[in-house]
Every structure is written in C-alpha cells, then in structure tokens.
Amino acid sequence: MRTVVAIYTGQGLADPLKAVFQEVLPGVRLVNIIDDSLIGDINKAGHIPPGVARRLVQYYRHAEEIGADVILNTCSSVGEVADLARSLIGVPIVKIDDTMTAKAAASYDRIAVLATLPSTLEPTMRLVQKQAERAGREVKLVNGLAEGAFAALVSGKPEEHDRLLLETALRTAADADVLVLAQGSMARMEKKLAEATGKPVFSSPRLGVEHVKAVLDAL
C-alpha cells in the first residue's frame, strides 16, 4: 500500500481533504501531520519566521521516516519552504496549489487571487506569476484579500467569513477572467462564488490530490 503524508499548518482542511483522498485515491494510506502553531506564528510575524521553516523541514523528514511515497504540502503560505526542502528530502513533495495555479496561468490573462490572510495571498500571487513565466505568458494579477474574514472564521463566525469572501469575489470579478482560491479551506465556497460572479473559480484540494495521484502513478 502506498503512503501519502499530508502536512498541515492548521486544522480546517484535514477532514475535507480526507474525503477527496477517499474518492480519488481510496487505496492509499493517508497520514496527517498537523501543527496549527505554524500558521499562528506566520500571522504574528507577517512572514515565515526561521523557526517555522525549520519545523516544517522536520515534519518533511518525519514524513520520510513514516514511509511516505509522496509528501503533500497543504498550506499555500509555506509553499516556498516546500520548494527549498525538495533538495533536502528524498521523497517527492507536492504542493497542493501547484496544479491550480498552473492551470489558471496557462489559460487566463487576468487572474484574481482570493485569500483571507496576506501571508497566503502574497506567496500565491508569486506562484501564479512564476507559473505564467514558465508557460511563457504575461498575466495580470488582481489582489483579492478578504480583510477580516480569517478573524471572523477563527472567532466562530463562519457566516461572516463567507460574506466577506463573497463581497471580495464580487469586487474583484469585474477585473478578472478567473478567481483562484489561495486557501484550500475555501474550497467549500467554490460553487457559490462561481454562481455569484459568473466566472470560473479554482480551488486546490481536488487538483492537489489529482497531482499526488499522478506522481504516485509515475513512481
């Protein structure tokens, strides 16, 4: 049986992602490593502190020791740490948002990136830009920061989170051809946002797991 170890910096995505794995990769052993202090430390610092990067690399090493065939990095805020860690870890590391951002960059000229945290928005926008450069394309990036939405969510106000995210989507949709959801936990809003804006909306969980499947199939 193949093993995938998923690394989380917060609690919200583990159960939804488990459901996607059961559908896309039902025969795979899924092991979760969750440390929600990581996103807290990133938000407090406004960037990725060295201690967070060190802990993440340790978790990648733990995943290797567990017997992972593939490591899934589930947090867009730390994707650049995953890029650097690939040279240190002997197991493929898949970033959950790689396929989503590549798909958007390859097909659309104006791309709105929606996020509830600057620490997630900025690296995701950089990733979209890199994907566009790899594809030899020029794209316009639209900032879709839903200010206050993350605070509402962690305060137990999911309806307020969803309202702020919807308002941000409607505001940015006029200047965009596609909306990209920077955080996997926002995937449950994908259909609602698409219906409200009339624009394509991409989220990362299913595309990320399909990427894992492709890597496993190639091993």
TrEMBL record:
Pfam families listed in its UniProt record: Asp_Glu_race
Molecular-function GO term, any one: amino-acid racemase activity
Source superkingdom: Bacteria
InterPro entries: Asp/Glu/hydantoin_racemase, Iso_Racemase_Enz_sf
Record-stated family: Belongs to the HyuE racemase family.
Protein name in the entry: Aspartate/glutamate racemase family protein
Originating organism: Paenibacillus aurantius
